[in-house]
Amino acid sequence: MSNTGDLPEADRIEGAPHPRETALLFGQDDAQRDFLEAYNSNRLHHAWLITGPRGVGKATLAWRIARFLLATPFEQGGGLFGDAPPAHETLDIPPEHPVAHRILAKSEPGLFPISRSVNEKTGKLRDMIVVDDIRGLTHFLTLSATEGGRRVVIVDAADEMNTNAANALLKMLEEPPALTTMLLISHQPSRLLPTIRSRCRELRLASLSPEAMTAALDQAGMGAEASAELTALADGSVGEAIRLTQLGGLAMYQEIVSIFAGLPRPDRTRALKLAEAAATRGADTRFEMLLTMFDTFLARLARTGATGSAPVPEAAEGETQLLLRLSDTPHKARAWANIAQEISGRTRHGQAVNLDPAALVLDTVFKITETASGRP
Asked: What is the pLDDT of residues 38-56, one digit of tens each?
């Protein structure tokens, strides 16, 4: 594990600690218990696919497992008198342990993390994990075993491998080196090669409860930002909660609710102001967040009609009343689900051909207004 200095890290959420710096994992006791059960019963698989929604702790779990394996001496066979080694009840490793120190310093020789690398020509992160990132793993696996005899590989995220990188990793999964554990983090397992999935044991993580969300945000130094509205919009994802906070997602969502509060006549002044803000130079990430907030609004409309009740807690002032008024039947729920798909396709296409962001926002407002009025 080499020290990459101040280069950008693809596996870090801006404004949050890196998963290697995160000591505790909240709300994922079942996944941790499943891994420890396999370890304690001497059935440790050579490759694990850690899946679940974004931002629920998949990378934190991978780094906890890596820290545990590298800090726990390998015990082959029984103890001195033939008895089994003591069972481990937790993945916790003391912060003063040498392995923990080396991992924080990015100098642990038994660990090889793989994520999207920096393109030397542009100085920016690549969009994909490329085959050169995987080739470095070949050299790592030929090295002699380090303390405890174990080596650990973390791929974050495996979904981001291009075809050549995926095929290169598959060869290593087919012929796994002894005492090597590969941890593949995946947000969308369906995007992986079926042959990769078949060679891994899955650990699936769930969305976090409000209590676990609050604890995780507090650990990330954002406890003061936690609110019912933030929890509602983040939908059980700490990573999404951090993005919402960093990019002003809560205020954007409140504006969307306020714009449509007067339907069938939307607040045109607010809509124009929102559109102008989206077109501001350098506002690309905020524009992406705005599109996400439109998607969220439409999803919550569809959920309201399908279930007969608005999501709890309310994500913006006046949201509950608006959702119930616009989506009070399963028929309307289907209409909102259909228009959500159409709007998503239109905005993504518009981005691909570099349409004016302000025009895309106003087009989205128009389509939502049209759907609310019952027009096709």
From this structure: 999 988 999 999 999 999 9
Query: Is 95 found in the same domain as 181?
Result: yes
CB 67 within 8 A of CB 93: yes
Tokens 């609310």 belong to which residue? 372
Q: Is residue 100 within 8 Å of 67, Cβ to Cβ?
A: yes
Domain shared by 165 and 254, yes or no: no
263-314 pLDDT, tens digit per residue, is 999 999 999 999 998 888 778 889 999 999 999 999 999 999 999 999 999 9
Tokens of 319: 């949201």
For 152, the token pair is 């650990």
Last residue of one domain, picked from the residues 172, 206, 240: 206
| 24/83 same-domain check | yes
Q: Reduced to 3 states, what is the DSSP secondary structure of residue 125? A: strand
Question: Does an H or E element contain 167, and which?
Answer: helix 163-174
Domain assignment present for residue 92? The answer is yes
